[in-house]
Specification:
mainly alpha, two-stranded antiparallel ribbon, 8 helices, 10% strand, globular
């Protein structure tokens, strides 16, 4: 079986099992998402909306929980994400978490409006949290790359060593995301043009040159 297809089938099976334990509205939301989102985004969005439901209902399952949601409910939920307890200590979370949860909930309420489950969308009176955060770029020095490859040479299973070297070298030389490399198949490699056909976020396809 095609490796990418096999991966998608496994994730879809995982989602279907999860949906059995959730209100039916989540199944409807799932099919709405399938037309525009990648399978990995879908499973994240369903999880985020489930977390929002638990916040609204205090952990109870309610197929119409969204009908009680007000603008203040959404703002309070996003505010609750600013901190969380880790190992008994309060830790301040970055705005990225609030922004991704907002995007999932916003998509959920768009779906509810489109399918006539609600007549007013409280999300229209909220704003996506700003994520103007500059991330420090982390990279490996040439000697560190050499150490990584040498470690694979010396410690990897002999039967898998060439595969491991290929995967790590591909990541180092192209900067591809792990999920893109994970979904790559043999048939995606074009040795005439030295390119790899990959899927990036939101099902965006592109050809990446390699050495």
């Amino acid at each position: 079986m095609n490796g990418r297809l096999e991966h998608e089938l496994k994730v879809e099976s995982k989602i279907n099992e999860k949906l059995k334990a959730l209100p039916f509205i989540f199944t409807e939301f799932y099919y709405y998402l399938k037309s525009s989102k990648s399978i990995n985004t879908i499973i994240r969005y369903i999880g985020y909306v489930e977390d929002f439901m638990n916040y609204v209902t205090y952990g109870k399952t309610d197929n119409e929980f969204y009908k009680t949601v007000k603008v203040s409910t959404i703002r309070q939920y996003l505010s609750s994400l600013e901190k969380k307890v880790v190992d008994g200590k309060a830790v301040r979370m970055g705005p990225e978490m609030q922004a991704t949860r907002w995007s999932a909930i916003n998509t959920f309420f768009k779906f509810l409006m489109m399918d006539d489950y609600i007549t007013e969308n409280p999300m229209l009176k909220t704003q996506r949290p700003k994520t103007n955060v500059s991330h420090k770029i982390t990279y490996l020095e040439p000697n560190e790359i050499e150490t990584v490859l040498k470690n694979i040479e010396e410690t990897a299973n002999p039967r898998l060593k060439n595969r491991e070297l290929c995967i790590v070298s591909l990541a180092l030389s192209t900067g591809l995301r792990i999920s893109a490399i994970h979904q790559a198949n043999i048939e995606d490699i074009n040795f005439e043009t030295n390119t790899l056909h990959v899927i990036e976020k939101e099902e965006f396809y592109r050809d990446i040159p390699f050495g």
